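Quick one: structure for this chain?
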Amino acid sequence: MRKKTKYLMIVQSFLLFLFGTFLNSNAQNLFPTAKNSYIKIDGGGINQLAPVTTGGWARGITYLNSGGTKGFFSMGMLGSVENPSRFYFAFAENSPWTSELGMHILPNGNIGVGTVLPVARLTVNGNILAKEIKIKTDITVPDYVFEKDYEMMSLSEIEQFVKKHKHLPEIPFAKIIERDGLDVAEMNLLLLKKIEELTLHLIENEKTIRQLKEEFLRYKDKG
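Got it. Here's what it folds into:
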């Protein structure tokens, strides 16, 4: 009985050593698959734990070349101790969490495309191509310009303002736009307001021209 117990202990020790070696050498590939075969998760999911450390960490999934020596694309989470910093989808051979060739999502919901530090709900560092864009805004549409009690600057007043400030009234000047960027919705409504005011000026000028023409014709008939 003692010999059998001793034999079982030796076998157990060997199996633990063998299994431990397998885990250590294949910790990142516990379920290797052959070509055209897949890992199937039927219910549940995959949980990755953030390591409790005193510094930063990154945990994710990387797509490698056939030799496993070069990373193409990665997705995962970057953080420090137990605080997440951002979730990323990025192309990069090394440190994809710092790559601007992808998308980064912050814990506050801000999304950055081409930038790791989005400062708005959506921040894009590059060009945007869209078939259609609709902007919903709380800014009042300037149809109040057509109300009877609306006081509009005269063209001579606008002329003096432009000479002094080098931009139209209410329109931000170049340095402000260069510093703060351009609010598309606000600018479009401001330009609409200027078009409406210009239309009223043209209507008044047409009335004046018509009146002068009628007076000239009456004067001509009398002569």
